[in-house]
Design goal:
heterodimer, A: 404 residues, alpha/beta, four-stranded parallel β-sheet, 19 helices, 9 strands, 41% helix, globular, B: 254 residues, nine-stranded mixed β-sheet, two-stranded antiparallel ribbon, 6 helices, 11 strands, 28% helix, elongated
Chain lengths: 404, 254
């Protein structure tokens, strides 16, 4: 895999090390006890020549030239497993790993696959390289018609931030349409930005493109400020994380909920509509940016348990130890790179875990996940009958006429 | 060594193309513009040459919506000088006129090597490079995928059909039509482009009235029209033959 030669020397110097202290709680890098839990828990730590713990050791010993003498930092999928497990509460993901990617990116040392997604985000406001004008095309023909804010110009209760993959990816459009139906079923007054919505930018930020993140956030901020609404809701944990935790520092502050929180608050309205599809064994995969990063573990589970006939079973990695789908921190755009390094995917591991607990359905709550797990299921023996479904799809199925 | 890269913006095919009211061109209101892919490679090759040898890179582009961002991006990659040609470029312009305008500007700029994309998808009257070389009375080579500078000459690799590659030594000044840079065009971080916007300046040069002669006169521009569907004839040989005879009789060829 061609990673271009750095056009400028990558600056892993004392300046880089001290810049880590500027990150929230960054002073804690000094407190690292070298337990190597971060490197051990990292799903790709075993193949990094410089996993996080070792990187910290080298930085503190001022052996700067050895740090990032290779490209395996791009295997970091920003899943926060290292940050979660760290006994010293060091911000390993938002500090060390993200800053390292930023340095590499500024030096022009970016895997080609990732460049395309970043360029597309710059040009079109989405990493897929789709026409921004077609961002709301998924909603065409839906009844009742979905309110696009620029067309109707009226205040709404809820602004639905749809997100990139939810808008454009054919598999995720199924989830997106299901959420629209559920919003209608519980009588929510909502609207979407359509072409005025840009990528939330969070994964680009975690892939080291801070400037691009700010550009995208500013564009979204301008769009938000044009309309009246009481809160934002999104099906995308990355968008949720960006709007909740990152946008306020840029002066963009709005109350935001992930859809699992939003629907859970309205479960009493929804429950009478849920009929169930018979006995189904469902296991739930905690998305990193819902679970570990934002501590939302219970709402998705309670929604699943509200469906008659659903038996919820937990995989070995659950809640704060959930195993990343590999799509975070730029991983969504580094499939080839990851495969070349690892010759396996975290999704394959996860699908095997689902099978080992006898699940009929692997439930997810993030738009990165369904296509990634479905791809993995195709290659795992015995996984052909495993269904991968978003929580919202399962809720909708339980509302349909043939449910009982 | 002074290297000049010429780039132009072209319609971005990510959006559907619309025909204008006159029916002879694209509706510019609906267009999104993007750097011509081959010109992006020409800029990259210029920067690669600069990094390998002592060279200064000038990037020239005709005015278009969004061209400033493209020029600043070139500066963030390492171009020293940015020139925007201003004039009546609004409805697009043919390559004869653009080549004349660029040639005029280049007469006042010291340059040894001129790189441009070998083609663009909106070239209706030939590509820019050969026209430019003609007006400047200097050599041209196209389909170039590698350039080395050697004692004031350029040693180039030129691609031919069938996977053949020719190596030539070209006396400078010359115009090269770049098929592909030696490395894919690099990504520059948005923060670097934003810095370039603060530090670099775009020099604007008014080109005067454009001479469109030599370009095409378009009588009609239209979307591909769906042809009538083919009829599939099925059956055994006898049946097919007799059906064919019927059809031939019907259309009057038998």
């Amino acid at each position: 895999m061609a990673v271009k030669q750095a056009e400028h020397a990558v600056d892993f110097s004392r300046t880089f090390y001290t810049s880590l202290f500027d990150v929230q709680d960054g002073e804690r890098f000094k407190n690292c006890i070298q337990c190597a839990s971060c490197s051990g828990v990292c799903p790709y730590g075993y193949l990094m020549t410089m996993p996080p713990g070792k990187m910290i050791a080298y930085l503190r010993a001022e052996i700067f030239d050895k740090v990032l003498s290779n490209d395996t930092v791009w295997m970091c999928i920003s899943c926060y497993a290292c940050t979660e497990i760290c006994p010293q509460n060091i911000p390993v993901t938002p500090g060390l790993m993200t800053r390292a990617k930023e340095e590499l990116l500024l030096a022009g040392n970016v895997p080609n696959e990732l460049q395309d997604a970043l360029m597309n985000s710059q040009r079109y406001g989405n990493p897929l390289g789709e026409s921004p004008r077609k961002r709301a095309l998924w909603s065409k023909g839906l009844e009742p018609e979905i309110t696009i804010m620029s067309k109707e110009k009226r205040p709404v209760d809820v602004l639905w931030f749809v997100g990139d993959y939810a808008s454009y990816h054919p598999r995720i459009q199924i989830t997106t349409k299901a959420f629209a139906e559920i919003l209608n079923a519980v009588g929510i007054d909502f609207g979407i930005l359509g072409p005025e919505e840009n990528s939330d930018g969070d994964s680009q930020r975690l892939a080291g493109e801070r400037g691009l993140f700010e550009m995208l956030a500013e564009k979204n901020g301008q769009s938000f400020s044009k309309y009246q609404f009481n809160q934002i809701v999104t099906t995308d944990p990355h968008a949720y994380n960006a709007i909740k935790n990152e946008y306020p520092a840029l002066g963009i502050s709005y109350p935001v909920q992930h859809y699992t929180q939003f629907i859970y608050e309205r479960l009493d309205d929804l429950k009478p509509l849920l009929k169930g599809n018979g006995h189904t064994r469902v296991t739930y995969h905690d998305p990193c940016y819902l679970g570990r990063v934002n501590d939302i573990y219970e709402e998705p589970r309670k929604l699943l348990q509200a469906i008659p006939g659903v038996e919820l079973t937990e995989m070995a990695h659950n809640r704060s130890t959930s195993l990343c789908c590999g799509g975070g921190g730029g991983g969504m755009w580094l499939d080839g790179f990851q495969w070349e390094k690892a010759h396996t995917r975290t999704t394959e591991w996860r699908v095997r875990e689902s099978l080992s607990v006898g699940a009929d359905v692997l439930a997810v709550a993030c738009p990165y996940e369904a296509p990634r797990f479905e791809d993995a299921a195709k290659t795992i023996q015995g996984a052909s009958s495993l269904a991968v479904k978003d929580v919202v799809e399962l809720l909708l199925e339980a509302m349909e006429d043939d449910a009982y | 060594m002074n290297i000049t890269a010429i780039l132009k913006l072209v319609p971005d095919l990510v959006e559907e193309l619309e025909i204008d009211d006159k029916g002879t061109g694209l509706d510019m209101d609906w267009l999104r513009l993007i750097i011509n892919e081959f010109d992006d490679h020409a800029v990259e090759e210029a920067i690669l040459l600069k990094e390998r040898s002592e060279a200064e890179v000038t990037v020239i582009a005709p005015d278009a919506e969004g061209v400033d961002d493209v020029l600043y991006t070139a500066a963030a990659k390492g171009a020293e000088k940015l020139i925007k040609l201003t004039g009546d470029f609004e409805d697009g312009v043919n390559n004869h006129a653009l080549a004349r305008a660029v040639a005029h500007v280049l007469q006042n700029i010291q340059t040894d090597l001129i790189l441009t994309g070998v083609q663009a998808h909106n070239d209706l009257d030939g590509s820019l490079g050969p026209l430019l070389a003609e007006y400047l009375h200097i050599p041209y080579a196209g389909y170039v995928s590698s350039v080395e500078l050697n004692n004031g000459n350029a040693v180039i690799k030129k691609e031919y059909p069938g996977g053949l590659i020719g190596e030539y030594e070209v006396q400078l000044q010359a115009v090269l039509g770049i098929q592909a840079a030696e490395e894919p065009p690099r990504y520059v971080a948005v923060s670097k482009v934003r810095m370039a916007m603060k530090s670099a300046t775009i020099e604007e040069l008014e080109v005067g009235e454009l001479d469109l002669s030599g370009g095409p006169e378009i009588s009609r521009m239209f979307q591909p029209e769906v042809a009538e569907r083919a009829t599939m004839i099925s059956g055994d040989d006898e049946e097919i033959a007799s059906q064919l005879v019927e059809i031939f009789k019907e259309i009057g060829v038998l």
